[in-house]
Design goal:
Elements: E1 2-6, H1 11-22, E2 26-31, H2 38-44, E3 48-51, E4 64-67, H3 76-83, E5 88-90, H4 91-100, E6 104-109, H5 114-127, E7 133-135, E8 147-148, E9 154-159, E10 163-165, E11 168-171, E12 180-183, H6 197-209, E13 216-220, H7 224-231, E14 238-241, E15 251-255, E16 262-267, E17 270-276, H8 282-297, H9 302-309, E18 320-325, E19 328-333, H10 338-352, E20 357-361, H11 366-369, H12 374-380, E21 386-390, H13 400-406, E22 410-413, H14 416-426, E23 432-436, H15 444-455
Parallel strand pairs: 1-2, 1-4, 2-3, 4-5, 6-9, 6-12, 7-9, 12-13, 13-14, 19-23, 20-21, 20-23, 21-22
Antiparallel strand pairs: 7-8, 10-11, 15-16, 16-17, 18-19
Cofactor: Mg(2+)
Protein name: UDP-N-acetylmuramate--L-alanyl-gamma-D-glutamyl-meso-2,6-diaminoheptandioate ligase
Pfam families: Mur_ligase, Mur_ligase_C, Mur_ligase_M
Length: about 450
Amino acid sequence: MHIHILGIGGTFMGGLAQLARAAGHTVSGADGPLYPPMSTQLAAAGIAVHSGYDPEQLSPPPDQVVVGNVMRRGLPVVEALLDRGIDYTSGPQWLAEHVLRGRWVLAVAGTHGKTTTASLLAHILEHAGLSPGFLIGGVPANFGVSARLTESPFFVVEADEYDTAFFDKRSKFVHYRPRTLVLNNLEFDHADIFPDVEAIQRQFHHLVRTVPSNGLIVDNADDARLRGVLAQGCWTPTAPFGDADLGDAGWRVRLLQPDGSRFEILQDGESRGQVSWSLLGRHNAGNALAALLAARHAGVPLPLGLQALSSFRGVARRLESLGEVAGVQLYDDFAHHPTAIATTLEGLRARVGAARLVAVLEPRSNTMRMGVHRDRLADALRAADRSWLYQPADLGWSLAGVADALGPRAHVEADLDRLVAELGDSLRPGDHVVFMSNGGFGGLPARVRAALAARGDGT
């Protein structure tokens, strides 16, 4: 069967393409410019990618077109697809019908931490010998790919609340019908499709309605909006974790190092084991606990899950170390929301102490570009000693107000070449620099690395 995927460059659709290829289908796709890691993964899988959205790519017609949610009415390929009567479906629907059906689905939902928690969960199941399939919106270092199809009954999926397709405005995750569901947190995001946070809560409630009574919902009890979701109706046992209203009952983490590199798992106030690992931040310790509880529901004993965490090597572009050059330590992070920015910087600050911490931010997500979070950005960047804010020409609002709120510690730059030059000149040995963008950032991390290397004198 020939499957053609529109919008194949996204992490979800690109992963879907790899699953379809592994299932034995002929797979092709189309998108705009691609960048790693998805471009390299598709090339490694032997999947041909057409550049652009012209109708010629549908001649001869494929057996089925899988439509990504970046597609919209008016695009030539979409109009040709409809006019010619070619069979089409959405990515989440294809996944549900061709991969998830009959499997034990473990889904991870929430505004933040989905990719890391899903990667942790897949790693724990793998360590336990369960060989799970997975589809994750990032590349776990332990696997090297964002999607995998196996014969195992277990399948881990990152459950995104974004809408499904131009013809299906439900959230993606309502298609997945998980037996094990992780609810990590809930904040306002995706302002391009949701009018308010209550609309997102309704979609999460629809997801909760799909979990069977013999399943399990692992929920963050510290999140009031998630508590509100469950209060709308819940027919499934829950495993709450966190500190809110639990007293000594339930599950929680206790940091043994301020940077979160060592922590303890508590159940009903009693220690169930300790973890030493490479990740940073209290938020990641919470992600680990959620993954442990989900894996436990699938039959992985807690001690075995704890053992797995010490060998977890992180996820590409989630505070990923890019190495050190000229005495400057570089990191790449997929920051897209003020909360994610703040927790990433706070975790790194706890690790580096008094060393100079530099944040370089591109406000690229749809919600960021709409200016919804502009009043929260300055506070999110407070842990950084210096912040460089990239102002794209088409952003539509000025970052000057954010810089003003931060004072002399912040600088706005609208030209990437100048930004490279300024960073190359101003960074000094001992600095820790975090590049924050949910896109390619114009290749900025590699360009700054080259500029630092070219200095030669280490100053």
